[in-house]
Task: inverse folding
């Protein structure tokens, strides 16, 4: 919110009463919620043209707001502060919402964007999610701490005084794209059908974290000098206690926590489960040494399973879907039995042109002969679009053009063109990796029955999304990938 006030102060610059009086305006602008009070300290001398009135300005924030700085012809953070009126001047007082100071963290609960607040239309199953945005800030959420892991612009440069309000735009845009990718990916064979999405994501809390409790990690002196404590682990026990995550998981059926971050040492995905233990993709950054003392106890265990997904904010949505794909691989592998249905789904044999049978993996599209060939234009005769467990599905020629397609997000997007132009990107799936991930998700057996013959008896594959999301019941009831 911006408000403007015009204050006229008289400076007498004439030597006789008959000379004209010149008035200089002082414009006060307000960003946020608060007021600025003025007190005249000294009037300008009538015989000295160079001197003007001296005023003391005091910024007074409204309830729930903080004063953070002056801008314009008055700068700095001192409050009150004096200004001399010797010409027309403009001063802006910046106020921000005061974050909550909890026992171990400083946070802000933000209003949830309408697209995030509701599951996609006609989805058959709602998944409740908490979004945590770690934005390190030394001034209560006004500027981003860019001393470590700086967030860079389109040219690879970075603003050392990057405003939190701008960085939030990127986080929101990415979160919207991830949600759309997950929901779109739950449309079984949506690349050729008009099926409805099976999964609808509902974000029930959207929380910005400006100060986070950390657990110390052993670092070399050289690395600590560069990364400081931003390369430490988050202390989930203290953070989740502050945020009352236990109640949200157990009483509001939260199944996922999306941890948007630009720093800290966090695995790609991390499960906490009272029934199976940690079945997740505990991949950290390169050169990381696995720490059993931390990894085995890092997340508090509640009465229900939940998964924390790392969303590395220096990447884009396609990498976040990639991380989710690995978690799917880990959980589906858990259900593998003598029927090897997960193995058959992936495909066992990689030939000179890729996999002719099976649907590939996160790293290996069906036409890939090595990792990460998401933009491979070479074709393979594949059954991915008609996969059946007995390898009888019809084969068609498949290459990267098969999965690169425009998927439009129908909502208002944040705009940040002068720093990160992709912030307002409203079309996904047209990039190689993002397109492959959504295409691969859509090939996973869902709510459309796939026949499966076992020992001469006819069965169907179960809905694997239910295995994935109903983890506790699936383990307790010994559910299978077929039924």
Result:
């Amino acid at each position: 919110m911006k408000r403007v006030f015009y204050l006229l102060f008289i400076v007498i610059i004439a030597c006789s009463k008959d000379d004209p009086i010149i008035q200089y305006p002082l414009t006060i602008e307000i960003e946020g919620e608060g007021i600025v009070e003025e007190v005249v300290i000294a009037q300008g001398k009538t015989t000295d043209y160079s001197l003007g009135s001296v005023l003391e300005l005091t910024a007074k924030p409204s309830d729930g707001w903080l004063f953070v700085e002056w801008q314009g012809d008055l700068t700095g953070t001192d409050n009150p502060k004096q200004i001399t009126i010797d010409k027309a001047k403009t001063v802006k007082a910046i106020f921000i919402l005061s974050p909550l100071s909890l026992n171990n963290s400083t946070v802000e609960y933000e209003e949830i964007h309408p697209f995030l607040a509701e599951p996609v239309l006609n989805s058959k199953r709602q998944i409740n999610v908490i979004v945590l945005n770690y934005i390190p800030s030394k001034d209560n959420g006004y500027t981003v701490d860019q001393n470590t892991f700086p967030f860079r612009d389109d040219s690879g440069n970075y603003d050392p005084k990057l405003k939190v309000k701008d960085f939030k735009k990127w986080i929101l845009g990415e979160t919207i794209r991830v949600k759309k990718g997950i929901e779109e990916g739950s449309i079984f064979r949506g690349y050729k059908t008009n099926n409805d999405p099976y999964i609808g994501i509902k974000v029930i809390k959207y929380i910005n974290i400006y100060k986070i409790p950390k657990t110390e990690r052993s670092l070399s002196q050289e690395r600590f000098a560069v990364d400081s404590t931003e390369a430490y682990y988050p202390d989930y026990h203290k953070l989740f206690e502050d945020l009352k995550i236990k109640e949200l998981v157990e009483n509001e059926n939260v199944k996922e926590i999306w941890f948007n971050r630009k720093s800290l040492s966090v695995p790609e995905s991390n499960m906490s489960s009272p029934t199976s233990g940690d079945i997740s993709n505990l991949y950290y950054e390169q050169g990381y040494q696995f720490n059993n003392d931390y990894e085995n106890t890092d997340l508090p265990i509640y009465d229900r399973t939940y998964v924390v997904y790392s969303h590395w904010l220096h990447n884009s949505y396609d990498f976040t879907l990639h991380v989710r794909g690995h978690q799917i691989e880990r959980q589906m592998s858990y259900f593998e039995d003598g029927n090897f249905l997960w193995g058959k789904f992936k495909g066992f044999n990689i030939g000179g042109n890729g996999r002719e049978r099976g649907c590939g993996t996160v790293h290996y599209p069906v036409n890939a002969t090595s990792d990460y060939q998401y933009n491979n234009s070479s074709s393979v005769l594949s059954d991915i679009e008609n996969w059946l467990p007995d390898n009888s599905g019809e084969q068609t020629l498949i290459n990267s053009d098969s999965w690169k397609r425009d998927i439009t997000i129908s909502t208002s997007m944040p705009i940040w063109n002068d720093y990160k132009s992709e912030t307002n990107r409203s079309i996904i799936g047209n990039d190689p990796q993002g397109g492959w991930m959504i295409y691969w998700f859509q090939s996973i057996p869902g709510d459309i029955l796939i026949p499966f013959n076992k020992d001469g008896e006819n069965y169907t594959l179960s809905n694997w999304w239910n295995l994935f999301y109903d983890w506790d019941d699936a383990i307790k009831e010994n559910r299978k990938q077929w039924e």
Q: What stands out?
A: DSSP finds eleven helices and 22 strands in the chain. Confidence is low (pLDDT under 50) at residues 5-16, 44-51.
